[in-house]
Amino acid sequence: MNTMIAYAAGEGSVGGVTCGQGITNLTSLINWGTCTIMHAVIPLLGALALAGFVYGIIKYFLNPDNEEKRKDGKSFMLWGLITLFVIVSIWGLVRIFSNTFLGTENIALPKLPEPKQ
Q1: 3-state DSSP call for residue 14?
Q2: pLDDT exceeds 60 at position 45
Q3: Domain residue extents for the chain
Q4: Which pairs with CB-CB distance under 8 Å and at least 24 residues apart come from 9-14?
Q5: How far is residue 53 CA from its own chain's centroid?
Q6: Could you write out the DSSP letters of every residue in 24-88?
Q7: How buried is residue 42: exposed, middle or buried, by Cβ count under 10 Å (0-12/13-18/19+)?
Q8: pTM for this model (two decimals)
Q9: β-strands 17-18, 13-14 pairing
Q10: What is the reported pLDDT for 2?
Q11: Which residues have a Cβ under 8 Å from the Cβ of 30 and sit 6 or more positions away?
């Protein structure tokens, strides 16, 4: 419970990324908000959208004879893709906002590890 209170006060970290050393003024509040959105909210929504898309694929392929369930599966796939597109767009807009108005360059999209040579 103390961790949740510290996080709400801006002293916690999200996914191993520190989102601030406390909220002291408007700029630090905006930095904390964009960090929280970038590292907690958007990845969670992205995971839910991906799960909905996969659910639609499973529903579509496991019901080859039932046209109503296949239609439902198509609908889940379509809305899952639309949601993923919107989430990635929001992610980009928050990055543009934070780089343009706050000058923070440390917010990055997740990357794959570099291959070993």
Answers
A1: strand
A2: yes
A3: 2-102
A4: 14/39, 14/40
A5: 15
A6: -SHHHHHHHHHHHIIIIIHHHHHHHHHHHHHHHHHHHHT-SS-HHHHHHHHHHHHHHHHHHHHHH
A7: middle
A8: 0.61
A9: antiparallel
A10: 42
A11: 101, 102
